[in-house]
Structures are given as C-alpha cells and as structure tokens.
Amino acid sequence: MGIVGPFPDWMLEKGRLVNNFFTQERLIYIEVNENSGNNNSNAFNSLIKNQNVKPPKQTKRHILVPKRSQLRRRLKTNDEGFYDFIRSLLEIDPNLR
Fold it and tell me: 70 lies in which domain range?
C-alpha cells in the first residue's frame, strides 16, 4: 500500500476476510500475543500445568503504517517498459489490472 496506494473502497466493503487485516477505519493491523516474554504468564503456566487449563489468550492489535515509497525508486531502473509492466502487475484493482 505504501508503494501502489490504498485498496479501493469496493474491495474493502465486499472482501470476506477484510476484518482479519483491516480495522473499521481501514488501517492495517496485526495481532500480537502479549503472553510471550511475560514473567507473570510463566508463573501462571506453572500453576496450571497439571490441570489441563490453557492460559488466557491476551492479544493486542498493532496498527501497521506502510512506508510511502515510489515504485520507480524501488525498481532502480530507467527502462520505461519494465516499469510499466511491473506497475500493471501491482495494480490492486483487478478491473484496472
């Protein structure tokens, strides 16, 4: 998205897995497990180890901000035909691709 731009609104409205990757504000996110590396969770794990109880899942959403960049700069080429070919392959909207 930082190179080729945002997804078209219609794709975000119709996509069935959009909620797995985008917030309602259409920001990209990932979920991070907060239990890893937490000393309290290690104590909790040792307490319930023999009781077949799973520790509570604690996740946080981290918003990802795409770095703005130009495709031409990323390709590092002066070949206009190659640039146009790659740009057309990276077109997000299949109707324009």
Answer: 9-89
Q: Is residue 1 part of a domain?
A: no
Q: Could you give the C-alpha distances from 32 to 20, 28, 52, 74, in angstroms and in order?
A: 13, 13, 24, 29
Is residue 14, in this structure, part of any structural domain at all?
yes
pLDDT digits (tens, 9 = 90+) for 30-53: 888 876 554 445 555 555 555 555
Residue 13 in any domain: the answer is yes
Distances (CA, A) of 22 to 12, 47, 90: 9, 37, 20
Read off the pTM: 0.59
Q: Which residue shows structure tokens 């996740």? A: 59
